[in-house]
Design a protein that fits this description.
372 residues; alpha/beta; 2 domains; five-stranded mixed beta barrel; 11 helices; 16 strands
Length: 372
């Protein structure tokens, strides 16, 4: 049996989460919030992957400069030099390339897991089993991703097309399958056709590769980006002043491209591990309601909320601990989301939850930046 590879994890933690306004703000995005109770989503993400990554010293966190302090505050066990703080937003390929270049200097055969910071996983053991299978596939030299078995014709996700159908129910085999192509978010008719064919999985944005393999792929498909991240990694030790100077000089000029468009769509041989472990990307208040504990009438709310002839609502009270006690009551309404913070109140039908991002746009247009 071949020896297990060295494994690193890169957690992408730079998102804005505008669909979770007013809880989520530019300096307090959703990965830093305990949207489902307990710890912030980012903390839960790190906790889930630690047994596979082999400890906090091999967990890298990619985030923006404006989030450096709050991110470090919730991840006190992660070494400071493991925070890859981007001086400018450049999409996912540059930060993934930077992490790959840094790991490749240590061991080009080490496997890097790239994972989002703000998803919810119900079956943690099942998730870790799929991660382990993806790591094993990547260790054989094949860039690998995880695809989620779809449960409905979702139009908000990208898809991964396979050469053959997978089962629509029952346990899934974790053997890697060949990827035919990545597909952008479809309309409803195409999503229904995808689901009926059985040959499509949801793209959850998780990627696995040996550090050296990713650098080879970047040199083939994004040579300017590859040269830039190689120079950053070679400038000095992780977290050193020399690395920061190179980062400030080079990173903002790198091509702004996603890893999907920049590499995966052009790479010749990719594998996918099918997964079914209770995954949600927590994309809106609607998905938060779906995962929340509810009363017999489908209402999710803090203790003390009053419901009269009201069904399937969600109430979220995020006022600070010192705020005056206030009773929230809903009468004769259905399928609403009500979110209260110290400085804002949101009321929206659950089926319009994706449109909350437009509130943020309006606030920016009228100059209320402190509310975004």
């Amino acid at each position: 049996m071949p020896p297990l590879p060295l494994v690193y994890a890169l957690i992408l933690a730079g998102g804005a989460g505008t669909r979770f306004w007013p809880a989520s703000r530019a300096r307090r995005p959703k990965q830093l919030l305990p949207l489902l109770g307990g710890d912030p989503l980012l903390v839960e993400t790190v906790r889930r992957i630690l047994p596979v990554a082999g400890g906090a010293s091999r967990v890298l966190i990619a985030s923006g400069r404006h989030l450096a302090e709050p991110t470090a505050a919730v991840l006190r066990d992660i070494p400071p030099e493991n925070l890859l703080i981007e001086p400018a937003p450049r999409n996912t390929a540059p930060c993934i390339g930077w992490a790959a270049a840094r790991v490749a200097r240590i061991d080009p055969s080490a496997v890097v897991m790239v994972l989002p910071s703000d998803h919810h996983i119900l079956d943690v053991d099942g998730f870790r089993a799929v991660l382990t299978a993806a790591v094993a596939s990547a260790a054989r030299g094949v860039i690998t991703t995880i695809g989620i078995r779809p449960t409905h014709p979702e139009t908000g996700y990208g898809y991964i097309e396979l050469d053959a159908a997978v089962s629509s129910a029952g346990p899934l085999d974790t053997a890697p399958l060949a990827v035919r192509r990545f597909v952008e978010k479809p309309d409803r008719a195409r999503a229904e056709a995808f689901l009926a064919s059985g040959r499509y999985l949801w793209n959850a944005g998780m990627f696995f590769f040996r550090a050296g393999d990713m650098m080879d792929a970047l040199r083939a498909h994004q040579p300017e980006l590859a040269a830039g991240v190689t120079a950053i990694a070679a400038a000095g030790e992780p977290g050193s002043e020399a690395e920061r100077e190179a980062l400030d000089a080079i990173f903002p000029r790198l091509p702004a491209v996603s890893i999907d468009h920049g590499v995966m769509e052009h790479h010749g041989s990719l594998a996918v591990i099918p997964g079914d472990f209770g995954w949600s990307d927590l994309g809106s208040w609607q998905s938060a309601w779906e995962l929340a504990a509810k009363d017999p009438l489908g209402n999710a709310a803090p203790d003390g909320t009053i419901f009269v002839d009201s069904h399937r609502n969600q109430v979220v009270d995020l006022r600070s601990a010192g705020a005056p006690k206030r009773v929230i009551a809903l009468v004769g309404v259905e399928d609403l989301v009500v979110v209260e913070t110290d400085d804002a109140l949101l009321v929206v039908p659950r089926h319009r939850a994706q449109d909350v991002k437009h509130v943020v746009d309006r606030l920016k247009t009228r100059g209320d930046g402190e509310l975004t």
